[in-house]
Design goal:
The protein is an alpha/beta fold. The chain contains ten helices and 13 strands. The longest helix is centred in the C-terminal third of the chain and has 26 residues.
C-alpha cells in the first residue's frame, strides 16, 4: 500500500494556492526602486536609513543562519513572528473551518486552543497524566483522537509549558507510526535548548508528517525580536508561506537576530544555558525543602512548576517582594500551582527569601 501524501492533510482549497505576491517577493535588480510605493526619503528618525524599504519576506542571511543552527535545509524552514504565527498558519492551512479538529494536551501552552478557535476548528483535549515522574502525554488517547475523531493536527510541547517535562523521541516516533500520515504531529520545542532529550528534528527524514517549532525568544534572549520558525517538509513550508502575511520580520529584528547567532553570541548563549540548568537544579532542591511546598516538578525547561499548600499566599508574598511569577491556578489540574522562571542567581535568591519568609509567617 502506498504511503499517504503529506499534502492530502492540507485544506483542499489551499492546495496550489499562490498567496499574495509582494514587491519584495520578485527577484528583480535595479538601483532605483519604484515598484512598492515606498517613500523616496528616509524618516527623520531613521538614522540608519534602513526602514523606508519593505523588508525581505524571508531574510536570506537570517534564514541561512537559522538553517545552520537547526541543521536543516533553508527550504525546510519558514521564519515568522515567533512560534505563535507558525501555530496559527498550521491550523489555518490544514483545518477546514467547522469540520476539522486539532489535539492539545492540557495543561499546556494556550495558543494551540486559541488558534483552533480562531479557525473554527474543533479542539479535542487529551489531558496530560500526572504521575510519579511528572506530567506525560496520554498517547493512546491522542491516537484515538486522530483515528476515531478525525483530528488533523496533534500539538505536542517538549519540554512542555507549563509542566517542564520532555517527551522521549521514541514515543513521538511511535505515535507517528501509529497515525500513518493521518495527522500532522507538531512538536513545539520552544525550550529545547534547556533539555538533554534529542530534538524531534531528527525524525524528519523518516516521517514527513512531523513539524517542529523553534524560537529565539527563550534561550537566545530575543523575545522582543519575535523570530520563530517552523521546520517541516519543503512542500508544507511552501503552503505555509503562501498563507503568510507579507513581510513578517522587520529588518532591524532580522539584523539583530543574525548578530545574535554569530559564533561569539552563541558561545555566550551556551554559557547562560548552562547556568540556567545549574540554577534550575539548585532552586528545585531549595524549593522542595520549604514548608508549604507540596511538589516541585522535574523540569527540562527554563522554569519550574511548583505546587503550594497556599498558592495564593505564595503568589502574594512574591509580589510583595517585587517578584512576578506565572499564576497557573486557572489551568486544568493546576489549581495549586505557580510557574517560576529561572532567573539570575540573585533573582532566584529573592524568590527563596520571599517564600521562606511567607512560610515562617504562616
Amino acid at each position: 500500500m502506498s504511503k499517504p501524501d503529506l499534502l492530502e492533510l492540507v485544506r483542499p482549497d489551499l492546495r496550489g494556492f499562490g498567496g499574495y505576491k509582494s514587491a519584495r517577493s520578485e527577484d528583480l535588480r535595479g538601483d532605483v526602486w519604484l515598484n512598492a510605493n515606498e517613500s523616496a526619503w528616509n524618516n527623520p528618525a531613521d538614522a540608519n536609513a534602513s526602514l523606508r524599504r519593505y523588508p525581505d519576506p524571508q531574510p536570506a542571511a537570517l534564514k541561512t543562519a537559522l538553517a545552520g543552527l537547526y541543521g536543516c535545509a533553508p527550504e525546510e524552514l519558514l521564519i515568522g513572528r515567533g512560534s505563535d504565527e507558525a501555530i496559527d498558519l498550521l491550523v489555518r492551512a490544514l483545518c477546514v473551518a467547522g469540520q476539522d479538529a486539532v489535539v492539545a494536551t492540557p495543561p499546556v501552552f494556550g495558543m494551540y486552543a486559541v488558534s483552533a478557535r480562531l479557525q473554527d476548528a474543533r479542539l479535542i483535549t487529551v489531558p496530560l497524566i500526572d504521575g510519579a515522574e511528572g506530567f506525560a502525554p496520554d498517547f493512546d488517547g491522542i491516537a484515538a483522537a486522530v483515528l476515531e475523531q478525525g483530528a488533523k493536527i496533534v500539538f505536542l510541547c517538549s519540554p512542555a509549558n507549563p509542566t517542564g517535562a520532555s517527551i522521549a523521541l521514541a514515543r513521538i516516533e511511535a505515535l507517528l507510526q501509529t497515525l500513518q500520515g493521518r495527522a500532522l504531529v507538531v512538536v513545539d520545542e520552544a525550550y529545547g535548548e534547556f533539555s538533554q532529550v534529542p530534538s524531534a528534528l531528527t525524525l524528519r527524514a523518516r516521517h514527513p508528517e512531523v513539524a517542529v517549532l523553534r524560537t529565539l525568544s527563550k534561550a537566545h534572549a530575543l523575545a522582543a525580536a519575535r523570530v520563530g520558525v517552523v521546520i517541516a517538509d519543503p512542500r508544507l513550508i511552501a503552503v505555509l508561506r503562501a498563507c503568510q502575511a507579507p513581510y513578517p520580520v522587520p529588518t532591524p529584528c532580522a539584523e539583530l537576530a543574525v548578530a545574535g547567532l554569530s559564533p561569539g553570541a552563541l558561545a555566550s548563549t551556551g554559557a547562560r544555558i548552562a547556568l540556567v540548568i545549574e540554577e534550575r537544579a539548585r532552586l528545585a532542591c531549595a524549593l522542595s525543602a520549604l514548608p508549604g511546598v507540596r511538589r516541585v516538578y522535574a523540569s527540562d525547561a527554563n522554569f519550574l512548576l511548583v505546587r503550594f499548600a497556599d498558592a495564593e499566599g505564595a503568589f502574594r508574598a512574591l509580589l510583595a517582594a517585587g517578584v512576578v511569577v506565572r499564576d497557573q491556578r486557572a489551568a486544568p489540574q493546576l489549581q495549586d500551582a505557580l510557574r517560576i522562571t529561572i532567573g539570575t542567581p540573585e533573582q532566584n535568591a529573592r524568590v527563596l527569601a520571599a517564600l521562606s519568609a511567607q512560610a515562617v509567617a504562616a
